[in-house]
Amino acid sequence: MPESQSLKTRIGELKERISEACASADRDFESVTLLAVSKTRPGGDIEIALGAGITRFGENYVDEAAAKQDQLGRSGLEWHFIGPIQSNKTRTIAERFDWVHSADRAKVIRRLGEQRSHNQSPLNVLLQVNIDREPQKAGCDPDDLETLAALVAEFPALRLRGLMAIPSADNSSEATRAAFAAMRRLYQTLKSDQPGVDTLSMGMSGDLEAAIAEGSTMVRVGTALFGPRANAG
């Protein structure tokens, strides 16, 4: 089967999974946004996905993403940075991306706010939460959310949209569901304090049903969309 047709088939299957998960959670299908995780994928794969109606793409590596953006352009595409943020890469993220999912500390937020051009629309910001408090993982402590949210609000070039999390890979399905539930509670608290908050980014290929059941509004899907990667997990 040609790759373009295979991708269209996977997109159809993925949308059906999302639809079924939404129905089980008594939610509308339109309440969940699909973000295609295109890290390590060539630009040609993104072009095929575009042809199949996918317009939102998530990237983890700044230099790789910039090369794809130069190849494909940015008109009609929505680029999301979803990987850990190095301080020396904030300018590129601020200049080239529409969303950042992984803001997790004051230094990064300040740099993004200062480096985003006021000629651009505000950069949509999600605060990444280390919900399982793993010492080796990016993400802020849940107790720091209020302070970081207030800092984002200080910068006109930034727009706080919500939260993102990646539960521990070692979690059981029950522990993953509990982590998603904890994120839902944090999101609801933040939303009550910040009227512009509308996005809870959680759930990937293997656990999107549990994430949607706990209120995810954006699922980040790579493998179930593009197929297994030869060089990564």
Task: Provide keyphrases for this structure.
233 residues, alpha/beta, TIM Barrel, 8-stranded parallel sheet, globular
Give the SSE layout.
Elements: H1 3-24, E1 33-37, H2 43-51, E2 56-59, H3 62-72, E3 78-81, H4 90-96, E4 99-103, H5 106-115, E5 123-129, H6 145-153, E6 158-165, H7 173-193, E7 199-201, H8 208-213, E8 218-221, H9 223-226
Parallel strand pairs: 1-2, 1-8, 2-3, 3-4, 4-5, 5-6, 6-7
Helix pairs in contact: 1-2, 4-5
Could you describe the 3D structure shown?
With 233 residues, the chain is of the alpha/beta class. It has one domain (3-226): TIM Barrel. 42% of the residues lie in helices and 17% in strands. The chain has nine helices and eight strands. The chain is globular, with a radius of gyration of 17 Å.
The radius of gyration computed from the alpha-carbon positions, rounded to a whole number of angstroms, is: 17 Å
Tally the beta strands. 8
Approximately what portion of the residues adopt beta-strand conformation? 15-25%
CATH class assignment: Alpha Beta
Largest sheet: 8 strands, parallel
